[in-house]
């Protein structure tokens, strides 16, 4: 037996597995969120609070996006297409 089976059977009482430290570039994890927050606060401390906060949204049902999708795909499967169409519409 190895690993978890050894530990459960009582034959081995050392630590299980090994610790893995995900890089900050691994998105949607606490380490990444903390880094994003610190970056945003750094910008605010250097340039001051923003005067405006503008949000632009994209409609994933725009014809230009839907034409590029296969039958079993959704817009999130092709983020490059969504980004290109959005940039086209903004400009």
TrEMBL record:
InterPro entries: Helitron_helicase-like. Residues 2-90 form the Helitron helicase-like domain. This is Helitron helicase-like domain-containing protein. It comes from Caenorhabditis nigoni.
């Amino acid at each position: 037996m190895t690993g978890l089976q050894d530990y459960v059977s009582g034959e081995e009482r050392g630590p299980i597995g090994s610790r893995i430290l995900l890089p900050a570039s691994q998105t949607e994890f606490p380490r990444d969120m903390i880094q994003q927050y610190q970056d945003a606060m750094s910008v605010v401390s250097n340039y001051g609070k923003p005067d405006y906060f503008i949000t632009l949204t994209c409609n994933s049902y725009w014809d230009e996006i839907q034409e590029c999708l296969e039958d079993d795909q959704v817009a999130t499967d092709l983020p490059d297409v969504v980004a290109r169409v959005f940039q086209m519409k903004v400009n």
